[in-house]
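Let us walk through a complete example step by step. Step one is to write down the protein sequence. Step two is to encode the small molecule, nicotinamide-adenine-dinucleotide, as a SMILES string so that its atoms and bonds are unambiguous. Step three, shown after the inputs, is the structure prediction itself.
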Amino acid sequence: MVKYKVADESLAEKGKEALYTAERKMPVVAKVIRERFEKEKPLKGVTIAGCLHITKETGILARTLMAGGAEVALCGSNPLSTQDNVAAALAEEGVNVFAWHGNTDEEFYWCIRQCLDLKPNILIDDGGDLIVTAHQDYPNLLKAGNFWGCQEETTTGVKRFKAMEKQGVLNVPLFPVNDARCKNQFDNELGTGQGVVSAIYGMHVLFAGKICVICGYGHCSSGMALRARGLGANVIVTEVDPIKALQARFAGYQVMPIKKAIPGADIILTATGCKHVIAPTKEMFELLKDGVILGNLGHFDIEIPTKELYEYAKEIKPIRKDVEELIFPNGNRIYLLAKGRLANLVLSEGHPSEVMDMSFALQSLMSEYIVKNKDKFKPGMIPVPEEIDDKIGFLKLKSIGIEIDTLTEEQYNYIHGYTEGT
Ligand SMILES: NC(=O)c1ccc[n+]([C@@H]2O[C@H](COP(=O)([O-])OP(=O)(O)OC[C@H]3O[C@@H](n4cnc5c(N)ncnc54)[C@H](O)[C@@H]3O)[C@@H](O)[C@H]2O)c1
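Step three: the predicted structure of the complex.
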C-alpha cells in the first residue's frame, strides 16, 4: 500500500496539470525511455528512493521509474523547494511521497527516514542528506548490502561523498551523476544560469544598467554571469580559483575580491557550494548598499550568512512572496531572496523541463545500469559510464531533430593513434 504525507491532497488536480506540461517538454524521459521501460520492465521488484526537489520534472522521473517496474519513494531535498500540488498528484499516482513546502529540519529528516524505512535498493540523492542519513542511521541495511548503488545529483553532494571516501567511510557504490557531461554542462550551466531570473521574480527588478556580482565562476555561476550580462547588467565575478578567475576575466567580466565588489553591488548572487561567501561580520554587512538584493543558488543556505544577517537586522519584514526586507541598524535595507535558499527553486519552479529531461534521463538509465550490474560494484565513487553519457546526448539530439556526423574508421584510428605526424 502506498504511504505518503503531503501538505494537501486536494491539490492533486493542479499537480497533474503541471505534470502534463512537463511531459511534452521531456521527450527522452517521458517517451523514449519510458516506452522501452514499459515493455522491458528492467526495474521490476526494485525499490528506488529519491531525495530530490519535488517539482513536476521529478514527477516525470518517478512516472518513468514506475513504468520500468520500480516502487518509488520520494522526499524533498530542500525544505522550501517542494511544489505541494505535484507532491499531492504523485501520492495519488502511487508514489510514496513524503514532502511538503516549508518543513522544519526535524520534519525534513523524518521524511528521509520514511523513504529509508522502505529499504530501497537504489538511492538518488540531491545534496547528500539521504545517503549520509543511510550511513548514520541504517547500518544494518548497509551491512546487508541493501543499497545496490547510489546516485548523487549535485556538486555539493558529490563533494560530501568525495570527503567520505577520503576518510574511508563511504560504504556504498556511489555514482556522481552530477559530473556526467550530459548533466553539469546543461543542468548547472543552463538551468541555474537562467536562475538569475529569480531576482526578477523576487523584486521585479531591471537588470539593465545594474551592477550584478556573481560569486563563483563554475558550472552554475558562469551560466549566471552570462545570463546577467545578457540582461544588460554590468557583471563582476568573485572567485577563489585562479584559473576560473582568469576565465572570467578573459570572458570580459570584472574580477575582484568580494570585499571590493560589495559596496557598488545592486544584486549579489552566489552559487559556489562554499560557506560564508559574504563573511558574517558587521564590517561586511555595513559595506552592503542600501537596496541591494541578495540571493543564493548554491545548494545550502550558508553561502549568504542568513542566520547572522537575521541577527544583525533590527527589523525583518516579509515584503513579497519569498522576499524579506532586512533593515540594518544604520538604516540600510537589503532584500533577501528565499531565506538564502536555492532562489531559482523557491521563487520559481527550478530548472526548465527541457534541461531536466537530460538529468533525469541519466538517472533513469543509471538506475537500469545499477540493477543489471549490481554484483560487480564495490563501495566508493564510480564514474558514470561514458556510453550512457553519450547515449543521452544522442537521444536528446534525436528528440529535437538534429543529426550529427559520425567518425569514419580512418578518422577513429587517426585520433586514437600516434604514428601519423608531419
Ligand atoms: N540552484 C540549482 O538549481 C543548482 C543546480 C546545480 C547545482 N547547484 C549547486 O550550486 C553550487 C555550485 O555548483 P557548481 O556545479 O557550479 O560547482 P563548481 O565547482 O563548478 O563551481 C563552484 C565555483 O565556486 C568557486 N568558489 C568556491 N568558493 C568560493 C568563494 N568563497 N568565493 C568565490 N568563489 C568560490 C569555485 O572555485 C568554483 O569555481 C553547488 O552547491 C551545487 O550543488 C544548484
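Step four is interpretation. The domain at 5-185+351-399 is CATH 3.40.50.1480 (Rossmann fold).
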